[in-house]
């Protein structure tokens, strides 16, 4: 139980998790990992090549993963780890 707590605590310190159906994904600045809650392990899903540091990940109702940098939005193929550029990420507001 302590090990499970430590995995989740470390995951939350490094990144914000995102649920895709029954899968929990976490990320740091360059990797996306899948959390196996039962086995208490992290499995590397991808080290995508992006135009900058990965700042966030999201999922839609179909389980598609999206990656965000400060400059762009990408779609991730979680099977082979490739990314497709969707477009530029623009700020919503300016001062």
Stretches where pLDDT is under 50 for at least 5 consecutive residues are 4-14
Order of helices and strands: HEEEEEEEE
Determine Rg (CA atoms, Å). Answer: 14 Å
Shape: globular
CATH topology: Thrombin, subunit H
Total separate domains: 1
Main beta sheet, described?
4 strands, antiparallel
Helical proportion?
10-25%
- CATH architecture designation: Beta Barrel
- Binned strand content: 35-45%
Mean pLDDT: 77
Strand order of the largest sheet: 1-2-3-4
SS content category: mainly beta
Report how far apart the termini are. Answer: 47 Å
At the first level of CATH, what is the class?
Mainly Beta
Explain the overall architecture:
The chain has 95 residues and is mainly beta. The protein has one helix and eight strands, in the order αββββββββ. It has one helix at 2-14, and strands at 18-20, 23-27, 32-36, 41-46, 56-59, 65-68, 72-76, 83-88. The protein has a four-stranded antiparallel beta sheet with strand order 1-2-3-4, covered by helices on one side. A four-stranded antiparallel beta sheet has the order 5-6-7-8, with no helix packed on it. β2 and β3 form a beta hairpin. It starts with a helix and ends in a 7-residue tail after the last strand. Residues 4-14 have low confidence and may be disordered.
